[in-house]
Each structure stands twice: as C-alpha cells, then as structure tokens.
Amino acid sequence: MLGAINSLDILAHPVVTVQCFGWRIFFRALFARQEETFLSLLNTTNIFDVSKQKSPELFDRIVHLELRAKHIYATFSKTFASNNSARQFFEVLALQEQEHAEMLELCRAATIRSGCKMKHLTSTSGCVSYLEQQMREIEELYAF
Questions:
Q1: pLDDT (tens digit, 9 = 90+) per residue, 14-48?
Q2: Which of 36, 89, 97, 126 lies at a CB distance of 3.0 to 4.6 Å from 70, suitable for a disulfide?
Q3: Quick one: angle between helices 57-79 and 125-141, nearest 10?
Q4: What is the pLDDT of residue 120?
Q5: CA 61 to CA 101: how far, in whole Å?
Q6: How far, in Å, CA of 144 to CA of 8, rounded?
Q7: Backbone angles phi, psi at 101, to 5 degrees
Q8: C-beta separation of 42 from 109 below 8 A
Q9: Residue 141: CB partners within 8 Å, gap ≥ 6?
Q10: Which residues contact 7 (CB under 8 A, 6 or more apart)?
C-alpha cells in the first residue's frame, strides 16, 4: 500500500485503525494491493458519506482552505512554467495541499467513527476564520 498512510502505519497502529475505521478496513488495508492507497480503500466504503452528514461545518471550511491553497500553488506553477525549479517547487506545494485535504477527510471520518467530542474542535474556529480572511486577501491581491 502506498500513500501518506501505508501498510506499516496500519501495522504500527492497529488499535487506532480499528477504533477509527473498524475491523473490515483494518484487514482490507493489511491485504491491499501495493498500488492502492488507504484513501482509495476508504473510498470503496460509505465512510465519507456518513462522516459528511454528521461532521461539523468546520471540517468543510478547513478542507476548503487546503484546496484553495492548492489552487494558488498550481497557478504559480503555471506562472513560472519557464523556470523549471520554481515550477517544480510550486507543483510540490500544490500536491502537498491536496494531500493535506485528503488527510483532513480521513480525520473527519475517524473523528465521527471514533465518537470524538466535537466540542474539542470549536476552539479552532477563530483560527480558521483568521486563515479564511488571510486567504481572501491573498486571492484578491493576486486575482485568483
């Protein structure tokens, strides 16, 4: 299994994996094909549909911020297309933002499945609002 979470991670943290995603996902992850990712494995279940129905809007806002940052970096990579180093730098940053968004989707699903108290997330709401404001200013400045 490849990706941000691989088979070694599953083996190193079996209790967490089972608590967050259940036995079925645990065993499927252990026996996944090498080219399969943990995220693609979870996409074959309904775990994301259920978590989006029950999760706080805060997750949506944070994932959206990551995807907006990805868009900015992807745009910069096109802007610097003639400079190979700069183009590659921004492509890597865009890829990392996509991975962050995917990891946050996993966090959303794990939070719902494990019964985590959502009240623990409310303290971050002010920080997210600040980041959204900063993102709007950057998007306006560069006309994204």
A1: 888 888 888 888 888 888 888 888 878 887 877 66
A2: 97
A3: 30
A4: 66
A5: 11
A6: 39
A7: -60, -40
A8: yes
A9: none
A10: 1, 29, 30, 32
How does DSSP classify residue 123? G
Q: How far apart are CA 67 and CA 70, in angstroms?
A: 5
**For residues 90 and 77, is the Cβ–Cβ distance under 8 A?**
yes
3-state helix, strand, coil in the chain (%, to 5): 80, 0, 20
Q: What is the pTM of this model?
A: 0.70
Closest residue by Cα to residue 21 from 57, 46, 4: 46
Mean pLDDT score of the chain = 84
Sorted by sequence, the CB contacts under 8 Å of residue 21 that are 6+ apart come out as 42, 47, 109, 110, 113
DSSP 122: G
Point out which residues pair with 2 in neighbouring strands: 37
For the stretch 82-122, pLDDT in tens is 999 999 999 999 999 999 998 888 888 777 776 666 666 67
Encoding tokens for residue 121? 């997330």
- What's the rounded Cα separation, in Å, for the pair 63 and 69? 10
